[in-house]
Amino acid sequence: MRAEDVFDVAAVDTWLRANAAPAHVASFGDGLPDVRQFPGGASNLTYQLTYAGPDGPRDLVLRRPPHGARGGSAHDMGREYRLQSALRPVFPLVPTMVAHCTDNDVLGAEFYVMERLTGTILRGELTPDLADAVTPADLDALCGRAVDVLVDLHEVDLEASGLASFGKGDAYVARQVAGWIRRYEAARTDDVPDYADVTAWLDAEQPPDLPLRCLVHNDFRFDNLVLAGGPGTDEPFTVTGVLDWELATTGDPLMELGSALAYWVQADDDDVFVATRRQPTNLPGMWTRQQVVTAYAARRGLEVDAATWRFYEVFGLFRLAVILQQIWARYRAGLTSNPAFAGFGPMVGYLEQRCRRVIEAGPVGWDA
């Protein structure tokens, strides 16, 4: 654990044994868990709790808000816990929830615990064993399966699953545009652009909501997907889990896709954008952003051309800039010392230029 993120393990263990279901507690065995912090993630803090267990190691995951968080649904542990609890019966790629704590005296903040999903997670660079074995055909097929998972999520019946209450109804596009503009203004520091031209364009060009209101994950990337199979096994890559539901709500599916593809760096992108890559989407066999949009649209019966897509690409890039700026503001204020955040300020400036490029010339990397 980073020094700033250490917590009282004994206090959490005592609370968990008193509040988790007996079947979970029985699997812990005696003694405190070994705790390690996941280095990834730039919003909520995530830890692995490993109990010795009477039948072998038992891995759990604990999630809590970051230090200095100012509230909001992205840091609402209870909401994230309830949403996943309701979603798992109809979308089994969600982890099993174990317990939710609202007593800030235990850890210093609200938190929840869930079962850990094991498997492969693709990050910026492939591990050496995968890099030596994976083929373009493997990655091409994986892209198709990832799109299928997103479509399956978007086709979950909101009313039947009880998930309709996790959103705020219609006017999602307008609410998102206004909300992310407001968040940027609140988090802006004196070393980043004001984004005035970009936000004015988003406000003026926003389309109406699609008549396809659905559950949106809002952080759908390969580093939030747990994979099974792949090279070295007898099975192709399959998606067996979807993680990090802190931003999930109900809304417009193309807004979700625009947000997801802001992170999708392809091989022909410029060097600065490539340097930000958090998933191996630049490798041979990986789809382009246009291929992802086209495949998704075909599955959902939508017509999405470059002119239509331009708004969603600009929105996704701006939204990413706001997320980075919120973290950059905390870093500048000394509320976190994570060295991974040191370059976020310059990246906010770069994304403003990329937004302008899309506004002026259309989606980057699309065929005519």
Short description:
The chain has 368 residues and is of the alpha+beta class.
The oligomerization state is single chain
Q: Specify the number of helices.
A: 14
The helical percent reads: 40-55%
- Report the CATH C-level class of the largest domain: Alpha Beta
Low-confidence stretches: none
What class would the helix/strand composition place it in? alpha+beta
For the largest beta sheet, what order do the strands appear in spatially?
A: 1-2-3-5-4
Essential attributes:
alpha+beta, Phosphorylase Kinase, domain 1, Aminoglycoside 3'-phosphotransferase, Chain: A, domain 2, 2 domains, five-stranded antiparallel beta sheet, two-stranded antiparallel sheet, 14 helices, 12% strand, globular
Question: How would you describe this protein?
Answer:
- With 368 residues, the chain is of the alpha+beta class.
- It has two domains: 113 residues, Phosphorylase Kinase, domain 1 (2-Layer Sandwich); 234 residues, Aminoglycoside 3'-phosphotransferase, Chain: A, domain 2 (Alpha-Beta Complex).
- 43% of the residues lie in helices and 12% in strands.
- The chain has a five-stranded antiparallel beta sheet, with helices on both faces.
- A hairpin with a 7-residue loop joins β1 and β2.
- The longest helix is centred in the last third of the chain and has 27 residues.
